[in-house]
Design brief:
- The protein has 5 helices and 4 strands.
- The chain has helices at residues 7-14, 18-26, 43-57, 62-70, 78-126; strands at residues 33-35, 38-40, 128-129, 132-133.
- It is elongated and about 85 Å long.
- The protein has 142 residues and is mainly α.
- A hairpin with a 2-residue loop joins strand 3 and strand 4 (132-133).
- The strands form 2 sheets. Strands 1-2 form a two-stranded antiparallel ribbon. Strands 3-4 form a two-stranded antiparallel ribbon.
């Protein structure tokens, strides 16, 4: 008989809460056996949970993770699942590359604004009239 897991064992092994596992079960992504109120997870559930968590780490929406995982049970089998996964990976890669380009552009813009601020501060601190340092106006006391 194949190894089975309690919800606590599965949670501990995968580093998630039992609540998260119940959520994935409610979403139809895991289907443990039942012994009264007790959930009995099979190796299939363990594998599916690990795939769910990997998909989440890679930034896939839960609906896409479900779609990919469900292909394991489809008649087309592993071949269709792998092709679909490769397409999803390519899409996600493009999204992340676009975000990286946006982040790089934002960082460059922030650097330019910071340089402008530093230059202006240097002008204000070193500015002088007739060889004397210009005092900054003080704020009126409240």
């Amino acid at each position: 008989m194949p190894r089975t897991y309690s919800i606590a064992e599965l949670a501990r092994e995968c580093g998630v809460t039992t609540r998260a596992i119940r959520f994935y079960e409610d979403q139809g992504m895991l289907s443990p056996l039942r012994d009264g109120q007790r959930r009995i997870y099979r190796p299939r559930d363990r594998t599916r949970l690990k795939l769910i968590l990997r998909g989440k780490r890679l930034g896939f929406p839960l609906a896409e993770v479900r779609e990919i995982i469900d292909l394991y049970d489809a008649p087309q089998g592993e071949d269709a699942q792998l092709h679909r996964l490769l397409a999803k990976i390519a899409d996600r890669h493009r999204e992340l590359e676009a975000k990286r380009e946006d982040i790089e552009a934002s960082l460059q813009e922030l650097d330019a604004v910071a340089d402008t601020c530093r230059d202006r501060l240097a002008e204000l601190e070193c500015g002088d009239r007739g060889g004397r340092r210009v005092k900054k106006p003080r704020r009126a006391a409240r």
